[in-house]
User: Which sequence fits this backbone?
C-alpha cells in the first residue's frame, strides 16, 4: 500500500535535507524516484532541490500542481516514489495530484513550511497531515534564544504568503520569540518591528548551542 510522508517545519530546519536523505535511501534500494520542485523556486538552482548548505539533487520543475502528474507520466520508467519539495508553494492545489499518485500505488513524500510568516497554517498541510502515514516535524534553532524553532519570521514586509527568500529575508524562531508579519487596515503588510540587541541571541551563541 502506498504511503504519504509529510516533512514539515520552519525554514532552516533541515526539511530539504530530510527529503534528500529519503530520496537517496530509496534509490540506493533500487526504487525509481521522481523529484519535483516548484518552478518559481530558483533560489539556488533551476533544476535541483538544494539545501541551505548546498547539497543538491536534480529535480523536475512543476509550474502548477497539475503539472506533477504530467511530469510523472512523462517518465520512461514509472516511479514508485514521488518526492515534492516546497509543497506549500502549490497550496491546496497539491492535494488532488498527491491523492491521484497514491491511488495509482505510488508513494509520496512532501516537504515544506506548515506555518507562514503571518503565523497561519499553510495549505496543503491542513489536509495532508490528517491523511499522512508519517509526519516528520523538523526544528532548527531559534535565532533569538536558541530554543527549538517552530516559525519562519519575515524580516522585510511582503503582501504575499508565498515569498521566495533565504537568510536575508527570514529568520527561524521559537513560538515565544516569533513576531508575525501584520496586515494593516489597508491590506498592506507590516514587517515585524526589530527587537533590541538585548532580545537577540548572538549568532555565534546559537551556533554553539547547535553543536552540543
Assistant:
Amino acid at each position: 500500500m502506498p504511503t504519504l510522508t509529510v516533512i514539515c517545519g520552519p525554514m532552516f530546519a533541515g526539511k530539504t535535507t530530510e527529503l534528500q536523505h529519503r530520496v537517496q535511501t530509496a534509490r540506493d534500494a533500487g526504487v525509481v524516484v521522481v523529484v519535483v520542485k516548484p518552478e518559481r523556486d530558483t533560489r539556488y538552482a533551476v533544476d535541483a532541490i538544494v539545501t541551505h548548505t548546498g547539497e543538491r539533487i536534480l529535480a523536475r520543475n512543476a509550474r502548477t500542481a497539475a503539472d506533477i502528474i504530467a511530469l510523472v507520466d512523462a517518465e520512461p520508467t514509472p516511479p514508485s516514489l514521488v518526492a515534492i519539495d516546497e509543497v506549500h508553494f502549490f497550496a491546496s492545489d497539491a492535494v488532488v495530484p498527491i491523492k491521484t499518485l497514491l491511488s495509482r500505488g505510488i508513494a509520496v513524500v512532501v516537504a515544506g513550511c506548515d506555518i507562514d510568516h503571518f503565523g497561519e497554517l499553510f495549505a496543503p498541510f491542513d489536509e495532508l497531515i490528517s491523511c499522512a502515514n508519517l509526519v516528520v516535524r523538523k526544528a532548527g534553532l531559534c535565532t533569538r534564544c536558541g530554543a527549538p524553532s517552530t516559525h519562519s519570521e519575515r524580516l522585510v514586509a511582503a503582501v504575499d504568503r508565498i515569498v521566495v527568500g533565504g537568510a536575508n529575508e527570514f529568520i527561524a524562531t521559537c513560538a515565544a520569540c516569533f513576531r508575525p508579519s501584520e496586515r494593516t487596515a489597508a491590506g498592506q503588510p507590516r514587517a515585524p518591528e526589530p527587537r533590541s540587541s538585548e532580545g537577540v541571541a548572538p549568532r555565534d551563541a546559537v551556533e554553539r548551542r547547535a553543536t552540543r
User: Anything to note?
Assistant: The CA atoms of residues 71 and 176 lie 41 Å apart. The domain at 4-137 is CATH 3.40.50.300 (Rossmann fold). The longest helix spans residues 15-28. Confidence is low (pLDDT under 50) at residues 195-212.
